[in-house]
Amino acid sequence: ATLPHLVVLKMISSEGRDLGDLRSMLGAASDAQLDAGRGAVRRHGTTEDLEDLERLIAAGRLERQAQP
How far apart are CA 35 and CA 14, in angstroms? Predict the structure, then answer.
């Protein structure tokens, strides 16, 4: 599955583990991959889902920066 598909599926599940996995994947994703993920959420989710995605992206990037 591509990142955009995983984003939508994991956000739908809203399980803690899935959101943690998603945060890690988003932190390592390229800008192009993130844009594709945003597009998938715009097509299949809500405005709230898009806001949640942006929070996950920010958290994933912070998590990645904190790694040695």
Answer: 21
pLDDT tens profile 11-65: 888 788 888 889 999 999 999 999 999 999 999 989 999 999 999 999 999 999 9
pTM of the complete model: 0.84
Long-range contacts, 54-60 (Cβ 8 Å, 24+): 56/19, 56/22, 56/23, 56/26, 57/26, 57/27, 59/23, 59/27, 60/22, 60/23, 60/24, 60/25, 60/26, 60/27, 60/28, 60/29
Q: Which two tokens stand for residue 43?
A: 């097509």
d(C-alpha 13, C-alpha 67), whole Å: 27
